[in-house]
Amino acid sequence: MKLxxxxxxxxxxxxxSGCGNHDDTAFRQAQEECYKKDALDSxxxxxxxxxxxxxxxxxxxxxxxxxxxxxxxxxxISYDLDPAVPPNQTVERFxxxxxxDLPLPSTSCSDCVARVGKKADGRSIEVMVHDSDYGIFxxxxxxxx
Length: 145
Hints:
Elements: H1 2-20, H2 25-49, H3 55-58, E1 62-65, E2 75-80, H4 87-96, E3 100-101, E4 112-120, E5 123-131, E6 137-144
Antiparallel strand pairs: 1-2, 2-6, 3-4, 4-5, 5-6
């Protein structure tokens, strides 16, 4: 009985110590680089979108990244729009600044009410306005292919 317990204990120590020596340095470095890239992309998006929004709306900026779920990441930013201003007025500021209308996604965004886009530095940017269940519209911006 003591021999069996000793063998089980020894096997457990070997298995646990083997798992503890797993080196995830490459993964952590790749993820860190992904977050750095997405942080730069978020700043670039905010520089393109922010000037077309009111100062109060700019204060609601939220930056997001897909680095936890996608190896290549993907930055996006969002703002809560002023509920006293109709969303079409906000979208009109983008159109006046040279942004063009884009078709609304048919399946991936059932709450989207407007979508505009433009190219900046050779990359395409899209801005979508989403209607929420609680009466606040959200504007989201991202780079897209």
